[in-house]
Structures
1.
Amino acid sequence: MKLKNIAFLAITCSATLSSCESFTDVDQKGMNLLSKTSDLELLLNAHYYGEWEDLAIICGDNLPLEYLPQSIEEPNKNFTQILLAWDENDHATRLPALSTNDDFYADCFSYIGTVANPVLMRVDEATGPEDHKNRLRAEALTIRAYFQYLAAQKYAAAYDPTTAETERCIPYLFETQDIQVPTEQLTQKQVYTNILADLDRAIDLDCLPVVALNRERVCKSFVYAVKAHVLISMGEQAEAEKAANKALEFGSTITDYKNLIVSKVNRGGTPIEVLVLGPKLQMEEDYFTNNTQCNGMLITPYNDSMFEPGHYRKDNISTGYLSSKGSYVPDDPQKDLEAIKDKYVQYYGVPYNSLSDLDSQHNTCGIKSSHMYMILTECAIDRGAINEAMEYLDKVRVCRINPDVYQPLQGRVTTKDEAIKYLKKSCHGEYAYTMWNFFTRKRWTIKADYKETLTRELLGKTYTITPESPLWIFPFPRNVMEMNPNIQHNYPTK
């Protein structure tokens, strides 16, 4: 944390900024001379990354692309192998020491320390129109709140209102932080209160654009969407509904995936239909986005089972199977598939498919309009409005499922249990291959009607992760804890 706190005192300029000589000037104290609002705005032109692979291993979706019989039997497992085995003992005894650093943590606090807080620290003194200053303030407050929220989802327990005032969470990095003083680890209640305060300040400034300069900048929908996620994490259903509806008021478009299907020929010479998400930064359903390739992870049977039949992200996303289709027995699809599976067993020890999508632009750490419909569905289910809930789901499903297979849920689903089942499937369709499946399933571990024990059958052994498991909480990176003695892990370690 100490390193992250001082990051805004030594901002490294990107290629975009390298030609701005005045921006790179520093005074005798080492402070960048961000003297104009136009200089500060350049900081907001950041590129964001969303590491999700370790989260996907814990929540059951994906496995590392390696020879699993060796990995699972390794006596001195590495970080990824401990997650793979859902090993609570090693999670308590060995994982903290193996967590030398963590890109997710580094990214979250880097965006706060080198993007959001420098803007907030310098904007009052900068020269420029007041309306421009207010827009920069609102963007920076939203960015800070968002990445504080993401960090809390990975490194702290799911928010429980009954323990929030005493449960440890993460530090909150304000622009006023004294860099000589290590930050304090706050409680869940304190962190979430600060997040909401930042978001409300951004909203009250009332100066964010309906359409952002680009989809890596902040728009009106995004600030309300972040607030909706935060509030539903806190169990504040009614307020989460209000925020989600407000986000949709400014942007409700759902991209129809059938329009993103591309016909091509795979490496085996077989014609295939592939879902290509994109074009880059131009998906209208994205309120805020990063662009990441999804490649090099095995897809678990559980992952496949959670998609509804005909879902484009299951049937048409670029995978190893789809790329190899027709390569072995082109005249017999079943024998061809068995030959592909045999190759995977040879390479990885299991016949699981693999992600191999180098063409799409996946939004792994952003928020989409579809998220808001998932939140509205959950809120409607929890207040007993099943038909209304299914109407929300159908708005998304009709744009995700092949029309030859699609059937509306509204009018057919009438019970809460069945509604929750379809909500989980629809959430999976939206959140797979992003960080959001982990965050959502973790949040559900404290909801009586939603929580479940996940089971992994692997190489003749059965592994489980319960809703109460400490595996849902990741250790802080060791390099952070060595620099800040105030931080303690948020689960019991040995």
2.
Amino acid sequence: MTYRVIALDLDGTLLDRQKHILPESLAVLATARAQGVKVIVVTGRHHVAIHPFYQALQLDTPAICCNGTYLYDYQARKVMTSDPLDKVKAKKVVDLLEHHGIHGLLYVDDAMLYQNLNGHVSRSIVWGENLPEGQRPNIVKVDSLRDAADNAQSIWKFATSHEDLNALRAFAKQVEDDVGLACEWSWHDQVDVAKHGNSKGRRLQEWVESQGMSMADVIAFGDNYNDLSMLENVGLGVAMGNADDAIKQRAALVIADNEHPGIAQVIREKVLR
């Protein structure tokens, strides 16, 4: 099988623990692009938080952001297609966050907003402060997430996290049952809330077919539950060695963890001519 598209999750997959792309991955992806293979980033991140990676990869493809909520044209700096959250439902999520004592980030328009600090928010801020000015994500403190949701043009998702996993599960269940939104685990202690029906796999399929190809032409790499919609629906779905066993069992291939050049090895064997 000849794969014409490489789809890449970022955190836990293309990125190592220090949020860097391995040099082996950079080299092999550049070779693949030179041979006409399309390389596309498929991430849970906001587009304002992919600048260093997009620039390092020198891609000309759009980015699939916020678990498939929207497709972002990096060169033109604009959203191409999207399915944002309804504001009424978003404010109900804010109410549930306050009820359960859970904090996180609200992804809107061109910014990531927070009302209260927690570990996830603090780590995001520190990561951004260590980047060159032109690559820093727009992370903004607001007095009220409820008001921020009202004032936003587009609400992409909530990225919530909590040390008490039982509280996080209870929150996620209530969001799904009472608000009718989708909750996806993007890390062991992080739940993303978005419009029901959005997924990495769905948005990837839309883009691939717009390019005159099918999902059978795609090799995809991921490590978490929000990656399953693409891993299970492409020509070859590859799980990282650091993924949960449940993810590995549902992937066609399992490789080394994100600290080792497994991605580069697979691309050399399965993609390059």
3.
Amino acid sequence: MLSGCFKSRVESKDDQSPDVQINSVSLDLDKIKSRGTLKALVDNSSTSYFIYKGQLMGYEYELLSLLAKEMGVALEIILTPSIDQAFEKLNNGEGDIIAFTLTVTKERKKRVAFTNSHYTTRQILVQRKPTNWRNMKLHEIEATLIRNQVALIGKEIHVRNSSSYADRLHNLSEEIGGDILVIEDEKDVETELMIKKVADGVIKYTVADEDIALVNASYYPNIDIKTPISFPQQIAWAVRKNAPDLLTYINEWQGQLKKTPTYNVIYRKYFKSPRASLTRLKSDFSSVSGGQLSKFDDLLKVGADSLGWDWRLLAAQAYQESAFDPNAKSWAGAVGLMQLIPETGKRFGANNLNNPAQSIKAGVKFLQHLDKLWAKTITDKHERIKFVLASYNVGLGHVEDARNLAKKYGADPLIWEGNVAVYLLNKSKPKYFKDKVVKSGYCRGEEPINYVRLILSRYDQYKQLLEG
């Protein structure tokens, strides 16, 4: 529950513009920790947040995962392509942090509080090389490109809506003594799509941060990114101005993280490894370009259809089981994409669990079997999915025990979160696994609880990034 609103002076003493009033919910670090979830607003790009071969990746995503773990809370990713919408969602409490590649500007400091900068970058003009550039000499190519910013007078430059690029171009117009025609595209058009439009010849010019431009130049060799239009600028995340404890926490965490090799590894992975970036960008299994999760998507769609599930949910489970490796084998002897033990596989029609089609078909039949059993008591389909997934992971008997314990101790046996899940976790304690209502004995309940949580979390993120 959000407790009221806070009308804040968003002007710092360093800013010279008039005071602006921003209505922000009162929601700082203590309430976020109490809620148990950090809500992060991100955009979908090849550096920030995307899916590659079923795995969630991105500079922002990896750092946010580390931050949430340090805070002891779950991470909830909210895909928000529009920068203006991200500011609105932050201040109305739909998100707690904007984890974009945000340029720190005085105007934005009126609306949000910026964290310490992650790094600095310049804004770069993105322009298209001549059609036959591969057959031209370097000086011939150079002659066709803009290198002097004064040459931008009268030129149309398309930029992301509400981005700092538009502000910079307006300021540059003043500096060079002539108007640059700045065209802001739709609010949900991302910078990388603008770069693609230049590469495809749809528009002539756009602007991007240099780090993003460098990654995309490896994918689009026909674009030029050598003309800067700004001095180095700070890139940072943002929180509400009335969340000083959260801001301090993030800054201290970030300061410590930057002293470790982990940060350098993450930064280099997304901004200093063009070959790896190119591989991901060109892949059919990238949400940025291809839109597929795995080579087995068609099989998963057929299976999910017979089960009555969204295929992305079944895919999230398959990734949790095997990371889409048909030859995966667990320490307990589970085999294949859906990680069935051979006895269970044979029961549901699979003689070769390393065969993806057989593994998925048998896994779906097992899920159908569990769904049919739980449908007798759990009528809500969405709630039942949690019981089905938990039973798939740890066995039907342990989940039934947890329901019986929930009944005995006054919890709701029809609700997973905060009720049955609690008593499944308690089955690792003698008081509970030796109870007379328990038939299957000891259970390390943390594993199935995390299993359900991770699948549903991944499913939510697959839904945001992939079509159904």
4.
Amino acid sequence: MQVVLITGGSTGIGRATGELLQSNGYTVIGTSRFPDLYTDHPFPLIQLDLQDSRSIQKAVGTIVSQYGNIDVLVNNAGKGIAGPLEETPLEEIRSVIETNLVGAAAVIQSIIPVMRRQNKGKIINITSIAGYSGLPFRAAYSATKSALHMLTESLRLELKTTDIQCCTLAPGDVATNISNGRYHVPVNENSPYHAIYGDARKDMDAHVNDGVSAKTVAVTINRLILINKLKPHYTVGPFLQRFSVYLKSYLPAKFYEFILSKFYKL
């Protein structure tokens, strides 16, 4: 029976993925910064904080000690952030980088030695379609997801001589509670961004509510686990958002930027 570790398994995509995989016969362990808050969770949660390398090492050691191996890592935990870059506190930018990029890398570093001993394993890094483009008022978030995208490409080459595979899965908008957990720069009436950022923030929340279900993402993750040879990158989500990834590859950069500016009413 394959053992799957899902970081950020308490809610949203992580929970939906764990529930589906468990129903399909996998042994699933999720992580949370505060697992004691989820007493009736459908699968086990252990404590892990992406900004604390010791908690990462402890969590991985606990799983290996209890289950013997980790066959699949779904590197899902992350932090949202939105606001004009000019007005975003640097400590919040540092925090999202530490969580979404450095924390994800720390989990990978802890998992690879385990997978080497097993001579197999899969790492699925959950990025975002926002990582394919620099979206307005999501500069820090887009940057971290783009960086994780590139990190995965490098990692694939470094693991080429092993049986450890990795890929990214970039969701578009997913109907979860991400808006509640996302750090938002306050809409300041004296800000030069007041009108456009205020409207954009409302649109962000509306787009999330109109997104695909977390189970749709879970189904895709289940499919990736079953694929023999993973490609570098996959997307999931509303068609137009997925299509935008391909548009960017073919359209002149300024024209693509023009389309984005119209979409975001800038």
